[in-house]
Amino acid sequence: MADLLPKEEKICESDEKHIIQINPKFKIGYVYSLELIQQCNRVPNLTNRASLIHHLLKSYGLLDHVLFLNSDKVSDDVFQGFHSGDYIEFLKRGDVDVEDETSEEYGLGYDCPPLEKLYDFISVIAGGSVAGAKALVSGSVDVAVNFCGGWHHAQRDCASGFCYINDCVLAILELERKFKHVLYIDLDIHHGDGVENAFAYSRKVFTLSLHKHEEGYFPGTGAVNDTGFGKGRNYSCNVPLKDGACDETFIHVFQTIFQEVMKRFRPEAIVCQCGADGLANDPLGTFNLTPKAYARCTAVIQSYKLPTLYLGGGGYHKANASRCFTTILAGLLGLQISSDIPEHEYFDWYGPSFELDVSRGLRRDENSPDYIRTLLQQVFGNLEQISSES
């Protein structure tokens, strides 16, 4: 349940000299527990990123302007709202061996190595996003933020792409307790395949994913003509972009399609995965975005004033991901913050510039005007098939 942490437990002190203007817009809930941070810090390729993000938010004083949402572990009943019982029971085992055929069957291996106390890990990770969804259902906040969430590749019965559990799906299921129609948005450079697959036959959840789609690029799904199945046909919208997508391209495409989706689907709540691996120079990404693109997209989402859950996701240049999520939260709070990184425990990570901005790289934007025009025509053709019935 949402409540402010007692004074002695608060983990931030305001640093108002780094806040230029205060213009609060929404009641923002920030999902937090020390265990959540510690568990996220264990993820291969993202080691200590959660601490980096949390302490940058703290150093700017942003956490003085949020309502803390306590994150608790979830039970098997919550997991089995989506994941298979056999898969969850397998993750409970403490002796998982990557050489075992069963481990391979359940997706544990190179990109999802078996972590020590794996069941504790998934219970905490899922609990953060479910806590955010519960706060929206109760109405205690207008917006909930869990930058430790966003594990969008996990499937019903296997791990995939660094994701052992699909907290995005579990959060959406929690929102469905109150909200009839939920829109899921995925800004990660990798297609949100696990979430799309979970709701591919449903008209109650619309999935919108902007991503890179190219042969050999993980997860290899998300073509523009992949639109769902059965009653859910046309309720999945995939927007494949090419290498070098810059802020202007990304914002234009997102805003144009998002506004049409809102008009046709009319959701009552939104979940947005803000994977930061589309930033310029991300080790696993090939886009050329800056945090301004993410901030603009979230501002467009907020203009509709719907209950919204923002999740983290990819972002493998840890300092830049931290910059991006800080920029997003400042925008949600209506705060204009200094470009100078405040001195704090992780200050050295932000050298040599020690600035909040992420400069775009030299990569050429391969998304030509003709390609974007054709892409939008295809997407709008799919959206025109949406039925208002559910």
Quaternary organisation: single chain
- What is Rg? 20 Å
Strand sequence of the main sheet, in spatial order? 3-2-4-9-8-5-6-7
Backbone shape: globular
CATH homologous superfamily caption: Histone deacetylase domain
Order of helices and strands: EEHHEHHHHEHEHEEHEHEHEH
Mean pLDDT metric:
92
Termini Cα gap? 31 Å
Treating each run of at least 4 consecutive H or I residues as one helix, how many helices? 12
Helix content: 25-40%
Largest sheet: 8 strands, parallel
Structural class: alpha/beta
Q: What fold name stands as the CATH topology?
A: Arginase, Chain A
Total domains, how many? Answer: 1
What is the class in the CATH system?
Alpha Beta
- β content, as a range? 5-15%
Task: Describe the protein.
- The chain has 390 residues and is an alpha/beta fold.
- The protein has a single domain (21-199, 266-360), classed as Arginase, Chain A (3-Layer(aba) Sandwich).
- It is built from 12 helices and 10 strands.
- An 8-stranded parallel sheet has the order 3-2-4-9-8-5-6-7, with helices on both faces.
- Helix 8 (193-198) links the parallel strand 5 (182-186) and strand 6.
- Helix 6 (118-138) packs parallel to helix 7 (167-175) and helix 10 packs parallel to helix 11.
- The chain is globular, with a radius of gyration of 20 Å.
- The model is unreliable at 1-17 (pLDDT under 50).
